[in-house]
Design brief:
Number of domains: 1
Largest sheet: 5 strands, parallel
Strand content: 15-25%
Structural class: alpha/beta
Number of strands: 5
CATH topology: Rossmann fold
Radius of gyration: 16 Å
Helix content: 25-40%
Order of helices and strands: EHEHHEHHEHEH
Length: about 190
């Protein structure tokens, strides 16, 4: 079992990072191979929308996405973890998602379907407010991203009302929920 955790927060050891680490710890405890990508530490240019990927399913931009594409396609479980900024994903993780237009082109234009072996996707998000629709836009984006890379949106851990760095440590259930989430996805 290969689990890829994509940490989309610019704040290392912040609430999102702590939840992702706890999720990966739970999965590792079940014997899963886990890998964590910290998007903010990578060089990922935004999509230039020049449609070069429509020719052969490969992005024409050369940067750290070159190493990420195969990881996205090899993982049994892909986890997107992001704080919510203005009711959306961070620009860091959104750039990674947008650059997967190349994988979308492979699937929908070139009819080269990604691996479809029951791969699952998980979404972890933390938001400062408690707005009713706080996570709605991000969930939609993540679902379409997962669909493009051949991953079924499976589970989510959404925590509203948490903002200050490390505040998640005081949440009554979030860290336990994250650990159990990781443990559970590694057993499937």
């Amino acid at each position: 079992m290969r689990i890829l955790g994509i940490m989309g927060s610019p704040r290392i050891k912040g609430n999102t990072d702590l939840l992702l680490d706890e999720t990966l710890k739970g999965a590792r405890g079940q014997g899963a191979y886990v890998e964590k990508i910290i998007v903010d530490e990578l060089e990922i240019a935004p999509c230039h929308e020049d449609y070069g990927c429509l020719a052969d399913g490969n992005c024409v931009i050369r940067d750290d996405m070159d190493d990420i594409y195969p990881k996205l396609l090899e993982a049994n479980v892909v986890i997107i973890a992001s704080p919510i900024f203005f009711y959306g994903l961070t620009s860091q993780v959104k750039a990674l998602i947008d650059r997967c237009q190349a994988l979308w082109a492979r699937k929908y234009v070139l009819k080269q379907n990604p691996p479809d072996t029951g791969r699952k996707g998980v979404f972890i998000a933390v938001g400062a407010t408690k707005g009713k629709k706080l996570f709605d836009g991000s969930i939609l984006t993540v679902k379409y991203f997962f669909q493009a890379i051949g991953v079924e949106y499976g589970e989510e851990l959404l925590v509203p009302g948490v903002d200050k760095q490390g505040e998640i440590m005081d949440h009554p259930t979030a860290l336990t929920d994250a650990f159990e989430l990781g443990s559970g996805i590694a057993q499937r």
